[in-house]
Write a structure and sequence with these properties.
This protein has helices at residues 37-44, 74-87, 100-111, 132-138, 142-159, 161-164, 168-171, 177-181, 188-200, 204-210, 233-239, 255-258, 260-271, and strands at residues 17-20, 26-30, 52-56, 93-98, 116-122, 216-222, 243-248. The chain has a seven-stranded mixed beta sheet, sandwiched between helices. The termini are far apart. The protein has 273 residues and is of the alpha/beta class. The longest helix is centred in the middle third of the chain and has 18 residues, at 142-159. Strand 2 (26-30), helix 1 (37-44) and strand 3 (52-56) form a beta-alpha-beta unit. Helix content is 42%, strand content 15%. The protein has one domain (3-271): Alpha/Beta hydrolase fold, catalytic domain (Rossmann fold, 3-Layer(aba) Sandwich). It has 13 helices and seven strands. Helix 2 crosses helix 3 and helix 3 packs across helix 10. Residues 25-139 form the AB hydrolase-1 domain. Pfam families: Abhydrolase_1. Keywords: Membrane, Transmembrane, Transmembrane helix. The chain crosses the membrane at residues 142-160.
Length: 273
Amino acid sequence: MAVADADHPDTGRPLYVREHGASGPLVAFLPGIGATTRYWEFVVGPMADRARLLLVGQLGFGRSPKPWTTYSVERPVAELHRVLAPAAARGPLTLVGHSLGAGLAVASADRHPEYVEWLALVSIPYFGWGKLAKRYLRQRGAAGWFGTYMIPFALVCLLGRRRLGWAVPLLARDVPRPLAEDLNQMTWRSSASPMWEVVDGHDLAVDVVRVAAHIRFLCLHADADASAPLEQMHELEWLHPNSVIRVYRGADHQVPLRQPAWVCQQLATSVAL
């Protein structure tokens, strides 16, 4: 990583948050790895007339803090709690996450069940118990993860945003250009921990089992997702009895961008927005 791209020491700033809508049920949205609050703005803007939308930037990306130190899943969960707890003071919320954001949503609900009513997990990278994530990423999921995330990450962060930032939209062609440009707001250190510690090294099944029984799961998935195995979702459904899985045929890992109307419809129908 270029020295010029390094972050300053941790300042204790909270996560970056954007709000839309003034009334209605509270719904918090967490983007996936490399994405910012703009990701969900592309998808759920029309819902602002009937719900209060809280778009939360993930630790390490966008305008949120980018820690220089390596951290486990507990750090982003604690940072989410800092912004979600005050927002949920008037009542429970629905927590919606895409990809990495879905995994962190589960971990947050496990540790702070007092204000989570619904979990909507979109394209969650659930690989099963133990170290199965490493095996999947090495084998079947390699093309999906490395093509979508790690190649742009490595080139931008190692060569420096100032040198190669212009090329990021050309490398990440499966997302709209503004979202691809958001990759320029990360650093290698801040993006490495979410990838290797939260996705690859964290046993998500343990969190799923421990989530309180009153919290309902809505899992939205695509059958052509090369980054998150659809077949493992049935195990997740078995681990938490209060869950339902809905599948869109013919879409990939970016199903919110490919089929935003379907995602919004599923949220509105299930969560009663």
